[in-house]
Amino acid sequence: MKRQMTADQALSRLQALCSASEQCSFDLVQKLRRWKLSADIADKIIRLLEEQRFVDDERFARAYTRHAYRFSKWGKAKISAALAAKHIPREIISEVIEEEIDPEEYHSIAKSILTAKARSLCIPSSYENRVRLYRFMASRGFETHLISRLLTDVLNEISTDDDQSVD
User: Fold this and answer.
1) pLDDT at position 167, please?
2) What span, in angstroms and rounded, lies between the C-alpha atoms of 28 and 6?
3) End-to-end alpha-carbon separation of the chain, Å?
């Protein structure tokens, strides 16, 4: 039979985890619940981790946003929803997305994703494929106004490229 983890053991394990990678307080509370520690002890451990700067939800949100945007190539809506699911306050989410995402780079990433997907379709300008491209970009978390604008631009570029390659 497993022994229940003590508060000191839990604290040291969480300190080690937080030293290795950014964590949010919600995920740590979930871990403490799985370890069957009382809510009172869990609150004390989380407060102590925050005081010692092992855990900072804003720092976590910034790191998460940078990673999701640059490497996973997610849009603002998907990043915002993922952070909200981790119980990060809306004010922090708005601030972090505004500060961490460069609008020009964001636009460029969205355009390159859409262009690659459009080129993979046989007839990208057909109605069905336009809908497919729109849904694909929405599933990546890009905003509807950006998708609409980019869809028109990318499909015009692709049709222009196709016309020139025939000549």
Assistant:
1) 46
2) 15
3) 77
Residue 59 is inside which H or E element, if any? helix 57-70
Query: Residue 63's Cα: distance from chain center in Å?
Result: 10
Query: For residues 53 and 48, what is the distance between their CA atoms, to the nearest angstrom?
Result: 8
Entry pTM: 0.87
3-class secondary structure per residue, 136-156: HHHHCCCCHHHHHHHHHHHHH
Quote the tokens at residue 21: 């990678």
What is the model's pLDDT at position 55? 96
What confidence tens digit (pLDDT) does each residue in 24-67 have?
999 999 999 999 999 999 999 999 999 999 999 999 999 999 99
- Are 25 and 57 in contact by the 8 Å Cβ rule? The answer is yes
How many residues does this entry show for the chain? 167
Coil/strand/helix, residue 86: coil
